[in-house]
Design a protein that fits this description.
Radius of gyration: 30 Å
CATH superfamily of the largest domain: Glutaredoxin
Largest sheet: 5 strands, mixed
Shape: elongated
Distance between the termini: 53 Å
Strand order of the largest sheet: 2-4-3-6-7
CATH topology of the largest domain: Glutaredoxin
Helix content: 55-70%
CATH architecture of the largest domain: 3-Layer(aba) Sandwich
CATH class of the largest domain: Alpha Beta
Number of domains: 3
Number of helices: 13
Number of strands: 7
Length: 358
């Protein structure tokens, strides 16, 4: 283990030595000679051969030479300590390589290097993450989580080679028709009404004509953490009313361009109240459930529904039918699409995580 540990340390220090050797070539030559010895010893170990170079003894002797003269009684415990430290260096290095490979594979397959806490990965796209539960409470659970992460990574790898245009995804949401022509490309846009990244993405889509280029299916997805709590307090209520409005149909007096369900999302993402506060912020931080529901009802009346129709939408929003649709959508998004963050979009044959960019 000593020769392997020495090789690891030499590898880490080689960059510094390479820089120093520009000014002092003798340092570079001496270092390269030691490095070759270390690699020779490691090579023998890897091929299960006996290390005949004596490199291990050279390392230990160079460390212990001064101790032997001054305090010979400490030679044995220090020698044992060197072996222990060498084992720890090798174990830490192997663990680091495994964790690095895990993070790299997760970033490639899931779009985040942290499977349980996607927002904690600075390398991933900006998202509103779908987090796991509160995390392991003891070492045994930690091992279980570690293997669970690998399971999620491997199950998501086939997604990178999947033809998403022909994926059979039975999702329900708001249809935004750019054209009824069968040749017009389709897109799926999964969002959370309370997600600030979804707001940015939606605005960019409107500004760049995304909704005019594709037949888009907007799928409301109230993010639910591992504990069962919703990430944004009124997202579930908004999603229920949006889906209820979809199934209610468009009222005869509607004067908008797409549908009342779309108008609800459009207003939450793009408009402000008379006090210049974003409706998304109001729903997330200010409105109680009762205030949020009354606001949605007033919007439905404004969009052309009669009082009787609003009552029907309210009853439908609270029905098991809508609850089942949202639960099924969520199951597809998490277990079939393997989304770890919202927004997640599917268009042009690929799955795209994070805010839309033209």
């Amino acid at each position: 283990m000593v020769c392997i540990a020495a090789f690891i340390i030499l590898c880490l220090m080689s960059v510094v030595v390479a820089f120093l050797s520009i000014f002092r070539r003798d340092i570079g030559k001496r270092w390269w000679k030691t490095f070759k010895k270390a690699w020779g010893c490691v090579g023998k170990r890897i091929t299960l051969q006996k290390c005949e170079t004596g490199f291990k003894e050279d390392i230990k002797n160079s460390i212990l030479s001064k101790v032997i003269v001054k305090k010979p009684k400490l030679v044995k415990p220090i020698s044992v300590g060197i072996e222990v430290v060498a084992v720890l260096i090798v174990l830490v290095t192997v663990w680091s390589l495994v964790e690095g490979a895990k993070a790299g594979l997760a970033l490639w397959s899931l779009g985040t290097c942290n499977v349980q806490r996607p927002e904690a990965c600075s390398l991933s796209a900006e998202v509103c993450s779908i987090d796991g539960d509160s995390g392991p409470k003891n070492p045994i659970e930690a091992v279980g989580y570690w293997f669970s992460d690998w399971g999620e990574i491997f199950s998501a790898i086939p997604d990178k080679f999947r033809d998403w245009d022909n994926a059979k995804l039975d999702l329900r949401g708001i249809m935004v028709y750019a054209s009824l022509d069968k040749n017009t490309k389709t897109a799926i846009d999964i969002f959370d009404p309370g997600c600030s990244v979804c707001l940015q993405s939606f605005r960019t889509q409107k500004e760049t004509g995304f909704f005019n280029q594709y037949n888009v299916l907007l799928v409301p997805f109230p993010i639910q953490n591992g504990s069962g709590e919703f990430k944004y307090k009124n997202s579930k209520l908004i999603s229920e009313y949006v889906m209820a409005a979809v199934y209610q149909g468009i009222p005869e007096t509607y004067k908008g361009s797409i549908s009342p369900a779309f108008d609800i999302i459009d207003r939450i993402f793009t408009e402000k109240n008379e006090e210049h506060k974003s409706y998304q912020k109001l729903f997330n931080d200010y409105y109680s459930a009762e205030e949020a529901e009354e606001t949605l009802k007033s919007w439905l009346v404004e969009f052309g529904y009669s009082e009787a129709e609003v009552s029907e939408i309210e009853a439908r929003a609270k029905s098991s039918e809508i609850a089942d649709i949202i639960a099924k959508n969520n199951d597809i998004v998490v277990n079939n699409i393997h989304a770890k963050g919202i927004p997640t979009m599917i268009y042009d044959g690929g799955k795209h995580t994070g805010a839309y960019k033209e």
